[in-house]
Structures are given as structure tokens and as C-alpha cells.
Write a structure and sequence with these properties.
Blueprint lengths: L12 E3 L5 H5 L12 E6 L4 E2 L9 E7 L3 H22 L4 E2 L4 E2 L2 E7 L6 H16 L3 E6 L3 H7 L4 H8 L11 H4 L5 E6 L6 E6 L13 E11 L8 E10 L2 H17 L1 H7 L3 E2 L10 E2 L1 H20 L3 E2 L5 E3 H7 L1 H4 L8 E3 L2 E2 L5 E3 L2 E5 L4 H8 L11 E10 L15 E11 L4 H18 L5 E6 L10 H17 L3 E5 L9 E7 L5 E10 L2 H4 L4 E2 L5 E2 L2 E10 H11 L13 E5 L5 H13 L4 E3 L6 H10 L4 E5 L1 H5 L2 E5 L5 E6 H13 L8 H5 L3
Parallel strand pairs: 15-21, 23-24, 30-31, 30-32
Antiparallel strand pairs: 1-4, 2-3, 2-4, 5-7, 6-7, 7-12, 8-9, 9-10, 11-12, 13-14, 16-20, 17-20, 18-19, 21-22, 22-29, 23-25, 25-26, 26-29, 27-28, 32-33, 33-34
Helix pairs in contact: 2-3, 8-16, 13-14
This protein binds zinc ion (ZN) (2 copies).
Pfam families: HGTP_anticodon, tRNA-synt_2b, tRNA_SAD
Subunit structure: Homodimer.
Cofactor: Zn(2+)
Length: 685
Amino acid sequence: MVNVTSVIEHPSFHVEAGTAVGTAMRELELPNKGADAIVCVKDAEGNLRDLSHVPDTAGEFTPVPANSPEGRSVIRHSCAHVLAQAVQAEFPGTKLGIGPAIENGFYYDFQVAEPFTPEDLKTLEKRMKKIIKSGQRFERRLYASAEAAAEELKNEPFKLELIQDKGNVDPNSDEATEVGAGDLTAYDNVNPRTNEVEWSDLCRGPHIPTTRYIPAFALTRSSAAYWRGNQDNADLQRVYGTAWETKEALEEYQLMLAEAEKRDHRRLGNELDLFSFPDEIGSGLPVFHPNGAIVRQEMEEHSRRRHIEDGYSFVTTPHITKADLYEKSGHLGFYKDGMFPPLQVDAEYDAEGKETKPGQDYYLKPMNCPMHNLIFDSRGRSYRELPLRLFEFGTVYRYEKSGVVHGLTRARGFTQDDAHIYCTDEQLEQELTSVLDFIISLLKDYGLDDFYLELSTKDPKKFVGSDEIWERSTDILQRVATNSGLELVPDPEGAAFYGPKISVQARDAIGRTWQMSTVQLDFNMPERMNLEYTASDGTKKRPIMIHRALFGSIERFFGVLLEHYAGAFPVWLAPHQVIGIPVADDFSPHLEKITAQLRKRGIRADVDTSDDRMQKKIRNHTTGKVPFMLLAGARDVEADAVSFRFLDGTQVNGVPVDEAVELIDAWVKERINDQPSEQSLAARR
Ligand SMILES: [Zn+2]
Ligand SMILES: [Zn+2]
């Protein structure tokens, strides 16, 4: 995968007050071209600075190479400036929005008369190449005052708004690219021959020294956008692009994109007749067709079996609840924006239509936890019952903005494989260890096998619970994660206010990472909902609560597996496992006999008796990703045998029927995730 490169970590170097960082760096003789060219530096506080930065006091700086995540993001944001310069040159009068770096690229928002066409993007790319080649310098300039900035930007209404709003801009937002913390600054693009300013932009920086530090870029697409993401605001056009430290890195990324496009689960879902999103039901609310429902059911069944083996108790809970519950749990306080608005029921009216009894608010449930807590709390609990592991395939509804709804991976209604574990302090370490083992082992059952962990720890500005419990449980999570032997990536201050979290990230077949499972400690909800158990000494104690979702949601996991396997699910999950294809009609009964035997063993097997010719049938079922195609001709019938045809085009002829049935049956029952082929079958005969 393109993002995984070995980045050289440079030691820091000393810069005297009044000396430009770049000048001080010169004697280190670091590269200024190629994949590891130094594009900027990081100061002791972790802020990125231009190479032209002149510190007021002496200090230490670390070089940032082009192929590091931070280096790439500086290149990408600089490329966004070049794009904006090109747009204003090609489309005079265009007003500028914002232009941040984002994951794998950048965008810039513009107010233009007409949406950009694909041809426009080509024209812009050409103009950008010229700008890059001309080697314009990026020069930082401090505005004398906010008024001076406003005067200079009087024709840029969106920039003006940002200047006025500077104090309120979230430092983590895209807007902060322009007016982050600190001084109000502009970056001028200076022509190296004439020293004239060609273009400038309100920006906090930093930037690469010159446009020549953008070795490879491409504009990818344009789309409609709203100013500051709010649909009440002005309509803008957003142009997306990507930029990389080398042409090779760009090509590798484009290849990955093309592969991802081919595997897009929304497209495969349609081609393989798995699921759809009918307009009549609404955005983000999928229906699963028979083929998709089989896969989903197999996924759930296997998970259910494994959960039973591991000591989980199954519960079910309703989809709606009175507001009281979510007030008590705190969701209405901190999660209301993510919930659908309430349904009001049970109001009573008199003859004149005047309300005599007020109605009740009911909410669609966005999370299962409060309901599981009610089950825990339905009677007194003894320490002997702990750990208590309540599990549910619980369907929840979350109000996602329509702009972020994305197929099965970001839906408005979905089913979590959700468990809540209540345990004692003493049980916590053992419980977390087995939960993590269980998660990894179950994800591997589905054929994912490349994982790393992320540990989110306390945000010192926002947390509930004692420092002691945070420290101890973070230590435990850290130990459990380390003992798992998996790579551990820290996420400092990334925890929710109610407890630390481990998440399991899985890499798929084309190297993309997906956040899968989360194991979240919660010190808040047991307190709010007053959960207790009786300890061995007879005193009442609070249980520790662990939220744990393994797939995340079944729908999302379905989407991830669909893309991971590019539609060719392992045999045990495949909607159609075996299809008989007679060489001529006469041989159908022979195949019917075999598929009947297979069906008796619970295998999904049919014979294609349509009028299509054999070659056409093979093509259809190859496209339909049926893993076992059984062919039968005269010789097969005579020998009571059958011939295998596989998705990779290979074939194994004349397998005795009894052996064929056993082979297929074992492939399903053993849940072999590799596709059968001439080669993989030979290994089992
Ligand atoms: Zn900038
Ligand atoms: Zn929960």
C-alpha cells in the first residue's frame, strides 16, 4: 500500500535566533529533491514551520521529509494553492473558499458561475503544471492588522468571513488551514525571475519552499459543496486533487483507486443482486435481497455460534424508547445531533382539540447500551454472575447527514453485533485479554488476517472518573494490546470522555485499513444508571462496563468483506455455492442427482437448466462468482464422475461423484476462505 513507506526520521538540529531554518539546515546536506526531500521543519512544540522561518529565540528543529505523512500534507495543501491560482487565472472573478489537505489529497472550494466540467479540470491541470514548472516561491507575509487583511481581501467575501470569525474557528477544522491559531498571515506566490507576486492567499501555512517541490499531482473530480458545510450557505464547487512526493507514488495510488473502484461494494451489491437502497425507503436504509440475505445470515450464524461458545448471553431489545431512558443514560445530552428527531405519541385532546394530556417523546434507538443496562438492573446481581456478557444483534438508527451517507459503510439504520460486559475490577484484565483474543480470532474466521491496534487514551480536558481508574485501566489495555503481539498505534487524548478504548484496524486485500472492532471501557454509564452488584463481602459495588462491537455493524462488515473479496465470497458465505452445468441437456439428471445429495448436506446447490449454451452458462456463473461449477458430459456420466470448473478458469475433470460431494462438503464445513481452484483442490486430494 502506498502509505506504508519507510520514512527516515531525522535528528533535530539547532538554529540560532535570527537565522533562517533553511540556512541552518544547509550544512546537514539533506536532500532537496526526490522522495525524501525536506519540505519543512517541525519546532520543539510540534508546529510545522516553513524552511524560511526565522526563529526569535534559538531552538531545535526537525526536518520533515516529503514522503512522511506531514510532508505529504504540506505538499498537498501547497498544491491546493496552485489549483486556486490556476482557477482564478482561467475563470476570472472566481471567489475563494478554503483549500485544506485531506487524507490522500486536497480540495479547494470555489464560487463560480458554472460547475466545472471534466474538460475544465484538464485545462486547470495544464495551467497548474505551468505554474509548478515556473518554480514560484511561497513567501509568508504577516498582515499588519486584521483591518489590513480585510482591506486586502475585500473582494473575497468568504476569506473576509474567516478573518472576522478567526477566534471561533475550530483548530481541527478545515477552515483552520486559512486562519489557524497565531498571527493572521498570507502566502504570496512569487515569480522567481521577476520577483513579482503572481498570486496570494490568506493562509496560516506552512508551505513548501517553491512550487517545484510538487513532483506529482492530479485533479480527481469536482462536486457541489456548501460554504462551511452548511446547506443554508452559498453553493460552491469543490475540486479534489491528490499530490505525492514522486510520480511512482502517485501512480501506485491511482492504481489502488482504480482497484477500489472495481471493488466498490455499492457497484458489486448491484451486480451480484445482494442489496439495494430504494428511494421510497430513504437514504442510508438498505434492503437485502435473497442473495445478500444468505451471506448476511451465514455471517450472523457463525458469529452467534462463536459467541455462545465464549459465554455470551443473548438478549433482544426494542427499536424505540421513551426519552427518559436516553436522558438518564446521557445520550440526549451529548448525542442528540446523531439521533432522529422524536416521535410524539399518546397526547389526549378534548372536543375543541385542546390538549388535555401531554404526549410522550419516543426516540429511535441510536445505541443498545442503555437497554442492556436495564436488563442488568432488572434484578439484584451478585458478584457470582460476573462477568455478565449480554449480546444482541441490535438494530440502531442514527441521523447521518445526507452528504456523508455512503452505501453500507455509513448508513442511517444498521445492526450492531453489540455486547456489553459487566465485570468486577479484579476481572477486568482477564476479561479484556479474552475479549481481544476472541475478536481477532473471529475476524480471522472471516478471512481478515492483517491487523493493528489503536489505543485511545485520556483527554485531560474532558473526562469523568478518577485518575486512578483511568491510569489503571489504560495500563491494562496497554498490556493486553502488547501481549497480543499486534502492532500498537497510540492515539493520545483520543478517548471519549467516559473511558479509554482499543480499536482493531484491519487491512484489506488492497491494503486499505478499516476500523473494525472497538473495545470501549465506560466509567460513566454505570454511574448514571446506578448499576450495582453485591460483592462477596455483602457490600454494593459498581460493575465496570465494557462496550464491544466486533463487526462494528453487520452491514458495514458485509461491505468491507464484499470489497475485500471483490465479490467472490468464501464458499461458506457464498449465496450460491454449487451450480451444475450440463454439457448437453441429457446430462442434467446426473447433475440433479449430485446437487440433491449436496442439498441434503445443507449446501446451496442447483442445476442451470436454462436454454443458454454451456459456454454462456460458465460465463454467467463466473460473473456471478459461484465458487463450484460442476460440469457433466458423457464421459462423466459413464464413470459416475463430475468435472470441476473454478472462478480462476482452471478445471479438474473426472472426479468420482462421492469424492466430489465430500470435497465440497468439507470445503464448506471447514469454512475454507481460499477460493477452490485446480491448485487448491489438488492440495486436498
Ligand atoms: Zn496555504
Ligand atoms: Zn454500548
